[in-house]
Amino acid sequence: MIKNKSLTTRDIIFQASVELFSSKGYHGTSIRDITGKVGIKESSLYNHFIGKEAILDAIMDYQMDVFNKAVKALEKLKFTDADNITDPVKFWMTGADEFLKYMDPLSELITQILINEMFLNQKCRQFYLNTMLLSQKKLVKTIFTEMRRKGMIKDCDIEKTASQYVYMLQGLEIENKLRAMEGEKTGKIQKHLFEQITLFIQGMKK
Description:
By secondary structure, the chain is mainly α. The chain has one domain (58-202). 73% of the residues lie in helices and 0% in strands. The chain has nine helices and no strands. It has helices spanning 9-24, 31-38, 42-45, 52-78, 88-100, 105-117, 122-149, 158-181, 186-202. The longest helix has 28 residues, at 122-149. The relative contact order is 0.10.
């Protein structure tokens, strides 16, 4: 578990839950499992969360908060450091590097939870379909629109192209999680990811 002396009991419960949900599954994790990992009584947990579903709600809220902070950072970047970049691949990778700065270890584990649970848990499925997926498409559409305005990419149906990119990325994300679970080195996985992204962006080049 990620340890930090400044964390509150609620934070520690939250982190322990993320770790357990990602390794044992939401349904496979009990309140007793969580309190045992944290080292508190079950009654103490209810002072911070009314139950396991409330923890899941907090996990999804956390993921959207991280995503929105990353989006705001990209908005700032668009008008500063990245403004003078003319190559579409470099422009995209600059934004990707900035975005990934906000993907902390907890966020990575939450992504794994969502991938695992979207087929089993209706709340996770609805969050993925109605919130995360739509937010990702909107973000990619905004960036592609900016790239087209700058003359970096050829004219295309931005909305459909953004959807295609997000679908590709989702497939890669699942594949990469599976490869990581099989023990493949992170560097090799990241190299494969950036190769595929580069091919996609190069295909849009004007």
